[in-house]
């Protein structure tokens, strides 16, 4: 175990914190640009299956992750990172992977839309609830002096307003929304990457030393998330296309959002930041490999039509 990993804190000045708040708002605005009111209307047409898939993401995954931290998280900050990832909504990459795997793309899009909208409340609540319930992470939150009430209200506001603004623009000026969405999303990821590079330069030694035991943890958690989606859909008797959509919706998380929250509100704790950043890479590798295998396993199935949201992979 890398010594002192929980003590690695990426202190940010006021301007850096303001920059992170802007990146978070920009990320959620770009998510809103990809949503349509029709995505939510589809929920009314398939309420049972969509609410079931959403419950897997916002209830079952955080709960199982909480239990998993007792078995595989060697430090409190790594356990916190695992909980933050589980609390994040699904990313648009799940839509792309579902389509590539010849799954139910329309179902995937509806699940992403609903989980993204609910994330305004569920993401901060799940982070505070599960981290506060775990003895080691609860102590860590006290050490860094997290104001839980302020975190809940500020995060809900920072996530909700940009998301609603993006959805409004997407409905009122869809061509403009489609044109600016990808550049805005790319810019927010590049800006976040700049913060990560700065953190590595400043704290590179202890973070690099931790990589060898961080990797197995995120691989196990990712496998659990994918298996949860697939196994639950299969037990519920859903068809193969829906099983694939559930697999990627549960296994792909918007870890970029989690990383911004960690840097802005949790002082970028070393282990938590490593887990969350690692997810942004690994879930695309594992998900891509699974999608490729599924597409070859059933080559006779038709490929889904183009994604209605023109979604691109996100981390």
Written description of the protein model:
Helix content is 80%, strand content 0%. It is mainly alpha-helical and 315 residues long. It has a single domain (12-297), classed as Na+/H+ antiporter like fold. Helix 4 packs across helix 12. It starts with 13 loop residues before the first helix and ends in an 18-residue tail after the last helix. 51% of the residues are buried.
- Main sheet summary: none
- Tertiary shape: globular
CATH architecture: Up-down Bundle
* N-C termini distance: 27 Å
Q: Percent helix among the residues?
A: over 70%
What is the averaged pLDDT score?
81
Rg result: 19 Å
Low-confidence stretches: 308-315
Stated plainly, the CATH topology is called Na+/H+ antiporter like fold
Give me the strand/helix succession. HHHHHHHHHHHHH
What's the CATH C level? Mainly Alpha
Q: How many domains?
A: 1
Structural class by secondary-structure content: mainly alpha
Number of strands: 0
Indicate the proportion of strand residues.
under 5%
Count of DSSP H/I helices: 13
């Amino acid at each position: 175990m890398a010594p002192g990993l929980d003590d690695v804190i990426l202190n940010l000045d006021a301007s850096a914190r303001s920059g992170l708040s802007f990146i978070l708002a920009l990320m959620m605005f770009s998510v809103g640009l990809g949503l349509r009111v029709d995505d939510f209307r589809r929920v009314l047409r398939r309420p049972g299956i969509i609410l079931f898939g959403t419950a897997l993401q916002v209830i079952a995954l955080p709960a199982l992750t909480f239990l998993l931290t007792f078995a595989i998280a060697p430090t409190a900050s790594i356990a916190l990172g695992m909980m933050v990832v589980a609390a994040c909504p699904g990313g648009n990459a799940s839509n792309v992977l579902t389509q590539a795997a010849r799954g139910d793309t329309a179902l995937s899009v509806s699940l992403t839309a609903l989980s993204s909208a609910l994330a305004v409340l569920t993401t901060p609540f799940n982070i505070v609830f599960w981290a506060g319930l775990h003895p080691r992470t609860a102590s860590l939150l006290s050490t860094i002096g997290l104001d839980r009430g302020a975190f809940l209200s500020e995060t809900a506001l920072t996530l909700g307003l940009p998301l609603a603004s993006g959805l409004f623009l997407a409905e009122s000026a869809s061509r403009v929304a489609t044109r600016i969405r990808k550049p805005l999303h790319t810019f927010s990821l590049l800006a976040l990457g700049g913060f990560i590079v700065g953190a590595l330069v400043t704290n590179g030694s202890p973070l690099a030393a931790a990589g060898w035991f961080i990797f197995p943890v995120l691989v196990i958690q990712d496998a659990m998330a994918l298996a949860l989606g697939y196994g639950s859909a299969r037990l519920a008797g859903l068809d193969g296309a829906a099983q694939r959509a559930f697999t990627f919706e549960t296994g792909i998380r918007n870890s970029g959002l989690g990383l911004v929250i960690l840097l802005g509100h949790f002082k970028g704790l070393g282990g938590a930041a490593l887990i969350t950043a690692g997810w942004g890479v690994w879930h695309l590798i594992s998900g891509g490999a699974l999608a490729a295998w599924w597409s070859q396993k059933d080559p006779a199935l038709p490929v889904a039509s183009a994604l209605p949201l023109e979604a691109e992979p996100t981390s």
